[in-house]
Amino acid sequence: MFGEIKASLHDFGVDFDVYFHEDSLHASGAVEHAVQRLRELGHIYEADGATWLRTTEFGDDKDRVVIKSDGEGAYISGDLAYYLNKRERGFERNLIMLGADHHGYVQRLMAMTAAFGDVPYVNLEILIGQLVNLVRDGQAVRMSKRAGTVITLEDLVEAVGVDAARYALVRSSIDSQVDIDLDLLTQRTNDNPVFYVQYAHARTRAVARNAAESGVDDSDFDASTLTHPTESVLLGALADYPRVVRQAAELREPHRVARFLEELAGHYHRWYDSCRVIPLGEAPVEPVHRARLRLNEATSQVLRNGLGLLGVSSPERM
């Protein structure tokens, strides 16, 4: 099963440098090492035949059992060992992704962080992801483990393709429930957000090919010739890209990049409809044509960079 998981992730464009097996923490003695460290810090005590961690000293609503009375590690024991393992390997900031149904687990993990002498929300950062709903024909695709109707990642990729699946998952904030319209994501229309952005990139490449055939190049361009209102808007959007990426990284919100790309694609399409890169008919190539080609290439680069950050392809033709 683990091999199948790795294969599914690889096909989805996700390859981890290290896969860490939780059972190795118990087999290697890492759990006992973590408990001993907390014992030395004075935060472990024995009661009712079990080993407890005084998490109430650090804001938790009750102390937590670490080793149960039968000698087996409780659920949190693996978290203690894993966190300490990462800290001892030199990681200053650890990020953990939890599902919405584990929201109540945040406080005890932060208490664990403080018990180790670290700073909650600094040395440990927890992201809470919401549920994903699939919609087909306007109706939610019902999922039930009991009935065996579970939608897998492979099912999603098979239905809409890797690019559309990745883009659909990343364009919404993890704080909000994600609704994925399977019918919409297979349409080649502007209503499909991934098609809209990818088509903008493909259009920039078509413009570049046509410009080359028409003898237009962007050498020695004069940016002052870009005076059309759509050009000012497009230039402003391009200039905002570094800020968007930086903020997306700082806030752990990659959806900001996807939303930016959709806005940029819209600005580009409107510019494309208003401004010619290639002279009309037999008219000569003018400085404005060279400047517009450079603007076209800049837009192409930013679209390609942004899609690349999201792990989505940038097609040359569509």
TrEMBL record:
Task: Identify this protein by name.
Answer: arginine--tRNA ligase
What range does the record give for the signal peptide? Answer: none
Q: Which UniProt keywords apply?
A: Aminoacyl-tRNA synthetase, ATP-binding, Ligase, Nucleotide-binding, Protein biosynthesis
From what superkingdom does this record's organism come? Bacteria
**Which residues does the UniProt record annotate as the domain DALR anticodon binding?**
197-318
Q: Does the keyword Aminoacyl-tRNA synthetase apply?
A: yes
Q: Does the keyword Protein biosynthesis apply?
A: yes
Reaction equation(s) it catalyzes: tRNA(Arg) + L-arginine + ATP = L-arginyl-tRNA(Arg) + AMP + diphosphate
InterPro entries in UniProt: Arg-tRNA-ligase, ArgRS_core, DALR_anticod-bd, Rossmann-like_a/b/a_fold, tRNAsynth_Ia_anticodon-bd
A single Pfam family it belongs to is DALR_1
The record's comment on protein family reads: Belongs to the class-I aminoacyl-tRNA synthetase family.
EC number of this enzyme: 6.1.1.19
